[in-house]
Design a protein that fits this description.
alpha/beta, Dihydrofolate Reductase, subunit A, two-stranded antiparallel ribbon, 4 helices
Length: 178
């Protein structure tokens, strides 16, 4: 079996934001189109583990009315700084992130899906742990908000893979670690 990879699969505005300052995500719906999932269903067949930061988890949990949809599809790890009991089918993890990723990659299974947020992406980039970056750029300029790439990370060489452009204006970029 091929080695498991850590895949960042996320959306951002053209100017690099994943949410507004007050965590509004409603702008993501501007590209919703009946019958178009931008490859998400196919992507989900390639992953079995989901990784996200605690702040993003809390936002999704609130937006979905107390349900965490990913927990019904994947083994979920919520990265947090505090101890928290596991709940809603997710594991709260407050240990060393690099150790977690190395342990997950050593296990049998499909790839590992990271969905942010920006702080988790920065921590993963600091250790060059992300194997692929799949970023859906939404055709909107927010002007301000919470950045996907926060800076302060080392230089990382990546190689461009074919991008996809959709009728809605969404452009899906795909890069692999060189």
């Amino acid at each position: 079996m091929a080695e498991r990879k850590l895949l960042l699969y996320i959306s951002m505005s053209l100017d690099g934001f994943i949410a507004t300052k007050n965590d509004d995500l409603s702008w993501l719906s501007m590209v919703e189109k009946t019958g178009e999932d931008y490859g998400y269903a196919e992507f989900n067949t390639r992953v079995d583990t989901y990784l996200v930061g605690r702040k993003t988890y809390d936002i999704v949990f609130k937006l979905t009315g107390g349900i965490f949809p990913q927990a019904s599809q994947h083994k979920c790890y919520i990265i947090t700084r505090q101890h928290r009991e596991n709940e809603n089918g997710v594991t709260f993890y407050n240990g060393d992130l690099e150790t977690l990723i190395h342990n997950l990659k050593a296990e049998e299974g499909k790839h590992i899906y990271c969905d942010g947020g920006g702080e988790i992406v920065k921590l993963l980039m600091e250790k060059n742990l992300i194997d692929e970056y799949i970023i859906s750029v939404i055709p909107i300029i927010l002007g301000d908000g919470k950045r996907l790439f926060q800076g302060g990370t080392p230089h990382i060489n990546i190689k461009a893979m074919p991008s996809k452009q959709f009728e809605s204006g969404l452009v899906q970029l795909h890069y692999v670690r060189a």
